[in-house]
Amino acid sequence: MEYQKEALFIYDEAGADWVDTVTGNPFGTAIRCVDATTFLESPEQHIGSTRHLVVTACMAVIEPVLQLCLQHQLSIGFLPLPTQKAIQRHFMLPRKTEESLELALRDAEDPST
Q1: Which of 18, 55, 63, 66 has an alpha carbon 20 to 30 Å from 74's alpha carbon atom?
Q2: Do residues 76 and 51 make contact, with C-beta atoms less than 8 angstroms apart?
Q3: Going from the N-terminus, what domains does the chain have, and what CATH number goes with each?
């Protein structure tokens, strides 16, 4: 399995508890973190050369981040909050944090995924 070399982790207040888990991931992915408010004020400044975003936030943050991914042709991984059961079901995401993180950091260009 191949994983992203680097990613930008975007989180809101509810997702702030995930920062240590994401930055300490065992998959070798270098993570830069930015809170959602700061990111949404100037997204291009934070995206830079990053080609993959990981998001843990409410829908009010997820929606504009998805739009930016489409505009900039970026890949995205979701780490749903425990209360976001609909997102888990819609995207068929694992319930366990470790499994969600593994999926969110996979390299979509890896033919084995």
Answers
A1: 18
A2: no
A3: 6-104 (3.40.50.10330)
Task: Say yes or no to pLDDT of 68 above 80.
Answer: yes
Distance, in Å, from the CA atom of 87 to the CA atom of 24, rounded to the nearest integer, reads 24
d(CA 63, CA 50): 19
- Position 5, amino acid: K
Return d(Cα 18, Cα 113) in angstroms, integer. 24
The answer for residues whose C-beta is within 8 angstroms of residue 18's C-beta and 6 or more apart is 9, 11, 56, 79, 97
Arithmetic mean of pLDDT, 44-70? 95
pTM over 0.90: yes
pLDDT at 15: 93
> What rounded mean pLDDT belongs to the chain?
93
